[in-house]
From TrEMBL:
Pfam families: Abhydrolase_6. GO terms for molecular function: peroxidase activity. This is Non-haem bromoperoxidase BPO-A2. It comes from Nocardia africana. InterPro entries: AB_hydrolase_1, AB_hydrolase_fold, AB_hydrolase_sf. The lineage of its organism: Bacteria, Bacillati, Actinomycetota, Actinomycetes, Mycobacteriales. The gene is bpoA2_3. Residues 258-282 are annotated as: Disordered. Its EC number is 1.11.1.-. PANTHER family: HYDROLASE, PUTATIVE (AFU_ORTHOLOGUE AFUA_4G13070)-RELATED (PTHR43798:SF6), MONOACYLGLYCEROL LIPASE (PTHR43798). Residues 261-270 have a biased composition (Low complexity).
Length: 282
């Protein structure tokens, strides 16, 4: 399916009917990886319309010359989400998709009903562990596979070759360079998203680590955090059943939040303003 949002022609696929949930993939891949990882989880129950876009410059979504930074990509994604959902919606993001998802949720807190971040790319990355092999012979696949997966079994290699590697041919290299030079979002005054949030990180993630995810968790007032042992940046592939359980718990909290009229959607954020003034931009 195609949808024009601003100057970007978005390609996306969707499944099901009901409350929209927009699922954002990471850098260097396209919607096929997110669909392969999250559709078996989100598609298991009724009531969710699952939307998987290609991010600008990946898959079949355009990245015009006017997109020159992460801020421009964020603006395009906000336009897309507003247009494709037409109502309140949920957000799920993996890796760079998680970076954009948390920023979208902060800016659309009145419309985003829930936020789930898996191995999110975040500013302030620190304490990133060295690559480590958890399972497998260690000589399967190419260097990219071995740098992404810590579970290096034939099954994981098959998933990599079907859902990850093919996307490389569709990445717009010029757009990747432009946006990569200004990949950090500009600071603004939006407090962290106040609604039901789940953050999942791999303890062995040698791409983004897990420490920045714990920092974000400390700032989110209604968040669950899981740091998963024996999982790396490819956690959605390597730990699908655990991820299923964590997202099921998140969806339960989203449903509870929707039906609880006493739950405030906007918490007291004076502490956030104080922290910004004391420490500078987060």
């Amino acid at each position: 399916m195609e949808l024009r949002a601003g100057e970007v022609d978005f390609h996306y696929v969707e499944h099901g009917t009901g409350r929209p949930v927009v699922v954002l993939h990471g850098a260097g891949v396209d919607h096929r990886e997110a669909e392969a990882c999250f559709e078996p989880i989100l598609g298991g129950g009724a009531g969710l319309r699952r939307i998987y876009p290609d991010l600008p410059g990946t898959g079949h979504t355009t990245a015009p010359e006017t997109l020159r930074s992460a801020d421009d990509v964020l603006d395009a994604l906000l336009r897309f989400a507003d247009a494709v959902t037409g109502s309140d919606f949920l957000l799920v993001g993996h890796s760079a998709g998680g970076y954009y998802a948390q920023a979208m949720a902060a800016r659309r807190a009145d419309r985003v009903a829930g936020l789930a971040l898996v191995c999110p790319l975040l500013p302030g990355l620190r304490d990133i562990p060295a690559p480590r092999l958890v399972a497998g012979p260690g000589d399967l696949g190419d260097e990219d596979f071995r740098g992404y997966f810590v579970v290096q079994t034939p099954d994981m290699l098959d998933r990599y070759e079907r859902f990850v590697a093919p996307a490389a041919a569709l990445v717009d290299p010029a757009a990747a360079r432009r946006i990569g030079e200004r990949w950090q979002l500009s600071a603004d005054d939006a407090p962290p998203y106040p609604g039901p949030t789940t953050i999942v990180a791999g303890r062995l993630d040698s791409t983004v680590g897990y420490a920045a995810a714990t920092d974000l968790f400390a700032r989110c007032p209604h968040a669950t955090l899981a740091v998963v042992d024996d999982a790396g940046h490819a956690l959605p592939h390597e730990q699908p059943e655990l991820l299923r359980a964590l997202l099921a718990e998140w969806l339960t909290r989203v449903a509870r939040d929707r039906t609880n009229p006493t739950r405030t959607s906007t918490p007291n954020t004076s502490w956030f303003a104080n922290e910004r003034s004391e420490k500078g931009t987060l």
